[in-house]
Automatic annotation (TrEMBL), chain A:
SUPFAM superfamilies: WD40 repeat-like. The keyword Repeat applies. This is SKI complex subunit WD repeat protein. Keywords: Repeat, WD repeat.
TrEMBL record, chain B:
One of its GO terms (biological process) is meiotic DNA double-strand break processing. InterPro entries: Spo11/TopoVI_A, Spo11/TopoVI_A_N, Spo11/TopoVI_A_sf, TOPRIM_Topo6A/Spo11, WH-like_DNA-bd_sf. PROSITE patterns: TOPO_IIB. Residues 190-321 form the Topoisomerase 6 subunit A/Spo11 TOPRIM domain. The active site is at 103 (o-(5'-phospho-dna)-tyrosine intermediate). It is an enzyme of class 5 (isomerase). Signal peptide: none annotated. This is DNA topoisomerase (ATP-hydrolyzing). It comes from Pichia kluyveri. Its cofactor is Mg(2+). Keywords: DNA-binding, Isomerase, Magnesium, Metal-binding, Topoisomerase. Its EC number is 5.6.2.2. The keyword Hydrolase does not apply.
């Protein structure tokens, strides 16, 4: 069954440059951008007004992960930010003063012996434990235990995930309840590890067109909420493919493909006609959302792997003055998309919401139509 | 009976009263130390060669000969050979290029960079430019246009020419530059290219299009073939001062090396005596990683070195002031996107517009 998605809010010109990652917490929609800013947008206001912003790194941020929890009766919100200079920053939101505070993260205090160029940060909260993971450009992934006292986190280096593959580790997804973590690499390989033992469980090779010139870069990985399925978005030549795997047996289940009636497409079985940059499951795991450089957001039915909905983004829904600020490089390509849990936005009612960011410097919120 | 002999190369050893006496003073001192070293070698003495490369930072390098370490013996020989070369060049009053020096004893020098590095160290220690040692950098840059510098003519009819040797301490007033054989004419643009492949491609197109309007009729095209050398930079600098009204464009690859080469022109100080870059008003055009004309087949995956070089360049850029960063905005964006996607792109002739 497919229901259309309708736009609930749009913020144009939200950053001065490409917005590369978005995450939704209970109170804020969090964005990071190439302009180096971390911005918190208030979920309560229907215009999604800017709540707080801070310049973290002049040379730009590309990924953010938020740790949000109540620890020792205290609300905690910590941001891990990956910068283009290969450094990692930790910031916290102080609920009393409503300020963003730099935690001056130094890898030396964690027990990590050598400096690495960090890339993709990720927090994961399990029952009674918090993990922090960060990939590096040299293919190793550092694993930390996190303890939070008085709202301040302490990172304790546990070890690294490494499979003799020095290819740039581009993305991770963690299923902490089942002790699983998957790491995607630039060369198209992705590895499933046991996060407790730091041991390799499975290694996978990507599907799609392969030749020496085109790497099958893994762009995004996601475990389904129940931990049984694993979705992988990777390049296949100029196209973007999404494949589904069974986690328990490491089996390939199939690909998410757009139905085509034309005989000249279909070789690569692709999901997006350009690279697919981001994928995410919804809370019950029945739907998957993907977005790509083809300016499309696609919502898929996981069971049948068919496309339920396609949203086309273009700059026409932005205010004219915001469009004027864009330059010729700023197409509406989407870099990050995620489902929003029910209850975060009042206007979404019992429906799934979506938030997407991209090169046109805008943040767009959507919700499933009907059934309010 | 062996003894220790210490030879010091430092600016303090020269008693420079005015510029005219530099070479005499240098010749005298070089004769003296070469004498000491040669006599020392005959005696079998230990010879300690001290290069006071940076007296303020107290950076010096000390080589003792003979030494148990083979590498140090070799380095000492390299310095001795170079000092002798400089000595002879000054006596003869002739100028020699670094490249020629290297070919004079390939077996000893092994690599051109060794010659360059050691010469730089000697020049730095004396606090003199290498030209004062009668040595010039080899000509590397190419130029295409109708131009004459003093009596040296650069003509489009013969294709691209090597950038003429001019004194690196000279200024605009020292040479007479004429564009298109007309004292009052000025080019519309000066176009700086990263590679000579693009330059020769453009020249070929222009030559095959004889009857059409020529795109670069009123332009000067220059390439330093990769990282610019001092001569090319100095030459471009003089040209831009002379033709101060014309626009300067730079075309570089859409990767970290293209960006670093662009910075060599637009932001890095030209030499030790100035904080000014070669062309501060250069408009960086270059290849864009993504625009409508880019085909997938043009994209090249980044390798490990590209990634770490990009990140360390970005780290260095943090120290730049905001105005400079603003002017580099589109190049930085390109580099960020190239890292984000894991791809780079080389400049193509179609990108030149």
């Amino acid at each position: 069954m497919s229901t259309p998605y309708i736009s609930t809010a749009t913020v144009g010109n939200a950053h001065k440059s490409d917005i590369l990652d978005v995450e939704v917490t209970s109170r804020f929609t969090v964005t990071v951008s190439s302009d180096g800013f971390l911005k918190l947008w208030s979920n309560e206001s229907s215009e999604r007004s800017l709540h707080k912003e801070v310049l973290v790194d002049k040379v730009g941020l590309h990924h953010v992960s938020v740790l949000e929890d109540i620890i020792d009766m205290k609300r905690v919100m910590i941001f891990a930010l990956g910068s283009f200079s290969g450094t990692l920053s930790l910031w916290k939101y102080d609920f009393d003063t409503e300020e963003l505070i730099d935690l001056n993260f130094d890898y030396k205090t964690t027990g990590l012996s050598a400096k690495s160029l960090f890339w993709f940060p990720k927090f994961a909260i399990g029952s009674g434990e918090i993990k922090f993971i960060c990939t590096t450009v040299s293919g190793r992934t550092a694993v930390f235990d996190v303890t939070v006292e008085e709202g301040n986190p302490t990172l304790d280096y546990k070890g690294e995930l490494y499979s003799n593959d020095n290819s740039f580790a581009t993305c991770v997804s963690i299923d902490i309840d089942n002790n699983r973590i998957v790491v995607g690499h630039q060369n198209g390989n992705f590895y499933l590890y046991d996060i407790k033992q730091l041991l390799l469980s499975y290694n996978f090779e990507s599907f799609g067109i392969k030749n020496s010139k085109s790497l099958n870069i893994v762009r995004s990985v996601a475990f389904s909420p129940n931990g049984e399925l694993l979705a992988i978005a990777n390049d296949s030549g100029p196209y973007g493919t999404i494949s589904l795997y069974d986690v328990k047996y490491g089996e390939y289940l199939g690909a998410f493909v757009i139905s085509t009636h034309s005989s000249n497409v279909g070789v690569g079985n692709f999901a997006h006609s350009k690279w697919c940059m981001s994928i995410a499951f919804n809370k019950d795991g029945k739907k998957l959302v993907s977005c790509g450089l083809d300016n499309l957001i696609k919502i898929w039915d996981v069971e049948s792997r068919s496309c339920l909905n396609t949203l086309k983004l273009n700059a026409t829904d932005l205010e004219d003055e915001d469009v004027l600020k864009l330059d010729d490089m700023d197409i509406s390509a989407c870099t990050s998309v995620t489902f929003v849990e029910q209850g975060i936005f009042k206007e979404d009612g019992q429906n799934d919401g979506l938030v997407v960011v991209g090169f046109d410097r805008s943040i767009r919120w959507f919700r499933e139509a009907g059934g309010l | 009976m062996t003894s220790n002999r210490i030879v010091i190369i430092s600016q303090d050893c020269l008693n420079i009263v005015n510029d005219n006496h530099i070479q005499n003073e240098l010749l005298e001192y070089l004769s003296k130390i070469l004498n000491i070293i040669e006599n020392g070698l005959k005696n079998g003495d230990y010879i300690q060669l001290e290069l006071h490369i940076n007296p303020i930072l107290k950076r010096k390098s000390v080589l003792t000969f003979p030494n148990l370490k083979e590498n140090i013996n070799w380095k000492f020989t390299v310095y001795l050979r170079l000092l002798k070369f400089i000595h002879t060049q000054i006596i003869k009053g002739e100028i020699i290029s670094k490249r020629q020096l290297y070919y004079a004893d390939v077996k000893l020098f092994k690599k051109q960079t060794i010659v360059d590095e050691c010469l730089d160290n000697i020049a730095l220690s004396f606090n003199l430019s290498i030209e004062k040692l009668n040595i010039i950098a080899s000509q590397k840059g190419l130029i295409y246009g109708e131009l004459s510098i003093d009596n040296y003519k650069i003509s489009k009819s013969i294709g691209s020419t090597l950038i003429p040797v001019i004194n690196l301490s000279s200024s605009l007033s020292d040479s007479k530059i004429i564009f298109n054989n007309n004292e009052n004419s000025s080019p519309d643009s000066i176009i700086i290219l990263e590679k000579d492949a693009i330059l020769s491609g453009l020249i070929n197109i222009e030559k095959s299009n004889k009857h059409l309007t020529q795109k670069f009729n009123n332009s000067i095209l220059i390439t330093a073939r990769g990282y610019p050398d001092r001569l090319t930079k100095h030459f471009i600098n003089i040209l831009t001062i002379k033709f101060n009204k014309c626009k300067i464009y730079g075309y570089f690859d859409s990767d970290v090396y293209g960006f670093m080469i662009a910075l060599e022109y637009s932001s890095k100080p030209m030499n030790n005596n100035t904080s000014l870059p070669c062309v501060s008003n250069m408009i960086i055009k270059g290849a864009k990683l993504f625009d409508n004309n880019v085909k997938y087949s043009d994209l090249i995956p980044l390798n490990d070195k590209d990634i770490s070089t990009s990140m360390s360049l970005l780290n260095r850029l943090k120290t730049y002031d905001d105005t400079t960063l603003d002017s580099l905005n589109s190049s930085i964006k390109n580099l960020q996107r190239s890292l984000y996607f894991g791809f780079k792109r080389e400049l193509k002739i179609v990108d030149i517009n």
